[in-house]
Amino acid sequence: MAGLSLQGVKKRFGHTEVITGVDLSIADGEFVVFVGPSGCGKSTLLRMIAGLETVSDGRIEIGGRDVTNADPAKRGIAMVFQTYALYPHMSVAANMGFPLEMAGLPQPEIDAKVAEAAKILHLEPFLKRKPRELSGGQRQRVAIGRAIVRKPDVFLFDEPLSNLDAELRVQMRIEIARLHQQLKSTMIYVTHDQVEAMTLASRIVVLKAGRIEQVGAPLDLYENPDNMFVAGFIGSPRMNFVPVTVVSQGDGFAVVAAAEVGLREVSVAVRGEPPVVGTRGVLGVRPEHFASGGDACFEGTVSVVERLGGLTYVHASLSDKSALTVESRDPRGFDLGTTRRFAFDPRRAFLFDGTGQRL
Amino acid sequence: MKRTLPQSLALYAGLAVIVLLIGLPFWWVMSGSIKLPREIISRVPTMVPQSFTLQHFEKLLQSTDFPAYLVNSLLVALFSTVFTIALALPTAYAFFRMKFPGRAALYRLILVAYAFPTVVVLIPIYGLFARFGLIDTRASLVIVNIAFALPFSIWMMRSFLASVPRDIEEAAIVDGAPPRVILLRIMAPLIAPGIASVAIFTFIASWTEYLFASVLIVSDARRTIPVGFAGIIGQYQIDWGLLLAGATLATIPVVILFAFVGRWFVTGLTEGAVK
Ligand SMILES: Nc1ncnc2c1ncn2[C@@H]1O[C@H](COP(=O)(O)OP(=O)(O)OP(=O)(O)O)[C@@H](O)[C@H]1O
Ligand SMILES: [Mg+2]
Fold this sequence. Notes:
The complex is a heterodimer of chains A (359) and B (275). With 359 residues, chain A is an alpha+beta fold. Chain A has 2 domains: 230 residues, 3-Layer(aba) Sandwich (Rossmann fold), CATH 3.40.50; 113 residues, CATH 2.40.50.140. In chain A, the strands form 4 sheets. A 6-stranded mixed sheet of chain A has the order 6-7-8-3-9-10, with helices on both faces. Chain A has a 5-stranded antiparallel sheet with strand order 13-12-11-14-19. A 4-stranded antiparallel sheet of chain A has the order 2-1-4-5, with helices on one face. In chain A, β1 and β2 form a beta hairpin. Chain A is elongated and about 75 Å long. Chain A starts with a strand and ends in a 7-residue tail after the last strand. The mean pLDDT of chain A is 91. Chain B is globular. Chain B contains 13 helices and no strands. By secondary structure, chain B is mostly helical. Chains A and B meet through β6, α2 and α4 of A and α8 and α9 of B. Bound molecules: adenosine-5'-triphosphate and magnesium ion (MG). The site of adenosine-5'-triphosphate has 11 residues of chain A, from α1. Adenosine-5'-triphosphate binds next to α1 of chain A. Chain A: GO terms for molecular function: ABC-type maltose transporter activity; ATP binding; ATP hydrolysis activity. Chain A: Belongs to the ABC transporter superfamily. Chain A: Its main location: membrane.
């Protein structure tokens, strides 16, 4: 068991810097999830922690030990790959026992540990099979089994569930959460599925273009995003962003308006110094924070209605061409093409400045 | 995929042509080897043997040195094949995975071995082997065969290595396997078709090699089949029955090799590894 720390970690491929300086410390036993859009460097960062990619600059410590240049096998990590990466010519038992065999353990001990891992992962009936004789979910469990047999300090997962179908993904997600409670080891998990991120993580690291945008507990990121990128990335469907102008301000709040989209003066809380009157900004409102009643509202034309049963998503366009997504518990009363008002709760709205930083 | 009837017919017709083209000469040689001399040289050739005799095989095995040539050929071809694989595999892996200065240049350079006509290198090699006392040894043939098979084998194996998903290798690295173990326990089984191809290529090249065998080997007892057999057939008069029997026996090891190695040519070896 061990924590982990990244200090000024950078990665260059030739002249392009894909990780542009990451500082992060992870406590023992934490479940940290890296999220971010495709190509932002999640895998690269994880592979640097694993030792599969060299570190161009900075320092990586695992359990207080500098491992920046250590061999992957000497870092006390185990990794589960998106593609499972099983050894196709070996049986399930041999696959899971391989790291122990490499560590020089005697065969009876290997067998015992493999049996124990197989029990945790419900793989006992398959130990003699070859990977090609298993389903996708079983293969993924073998890959996880191969990681847990060695009792590593840190588990690294690179999008382990993305090759599974939706149902199995939910099941495996729960299994991984259970595994974390059971083993209590540090886990770092890369995904771009934000449901996985929200449900599994004790802390989420949001990455963008090789840089950390924000680190925090899932609900912190949801309730208190630092910028428009994080606000838009966490939460589904995406947060709505509507350009507004500051019309007055006071201690800890700003009053904003956007007449062209039907938004009359509404007061929004701000975290720091209130913005000066006349500033152009962006108001962020999550689809789930719309509710009938109240003065704060946008005026838009209903363009698409998705009725999911319990919930209904209404997509509307505002007169300034920006799109609005509204969640409603009542499926009735949204006729296509009609223009209507969508009221929201201004206490749950966020104000961002012109550069996308939270005010 | 469903084929229409004309498509199927065309396919089978094409197959039949290929089978005849390749199979007919074989059938001619093998069936001829058990015909009586009279039938072999008869004016109207017979596709199905009308007579049966083992006299050609008897003569070949009892009153010529053919058995010795067969053993020599087998030894030379087997050792050439085994050493070629043993050398090509780690070399190809090094070219594929290790980073060292001049790697790309060196990798291209090894193909220069094929740039010269063999006759050109014959004399320098003879001189070299004479100095090391290797003339008239079967080892000299093994060395020559390896030298000629190696560059191609390295290229071949490298491309097979490149087809193994990188993740599998990285998983082995994380699992703590040193390069030697990764090569032998993980990569080698996964590129079995590549190893089989190299084995067959080297074996056949060694089995049929004539030029060096005719120059480097002096004593009759150390000859390989291509050279030794040419001597048996005779210079002025050709014993057709003997020729066909010898040709038949000479193909048998190759056929056995294909049967033995063929099972490694299975596709989808990495199936189930990724995805
Ligand atoms: N070996 C490499 N050489 C050059 N560039 C690379 C290499 N590996 C990754 N990159 C680049 O680094 C950036 C980050 O890649 P990375 O694979 O870490 O992204 P990711 O966040 O994992 O994306 P995804 O969600 O699609 O898996 C990308 O722009 C990619 O093109
Ligand atoms: Mg990735």
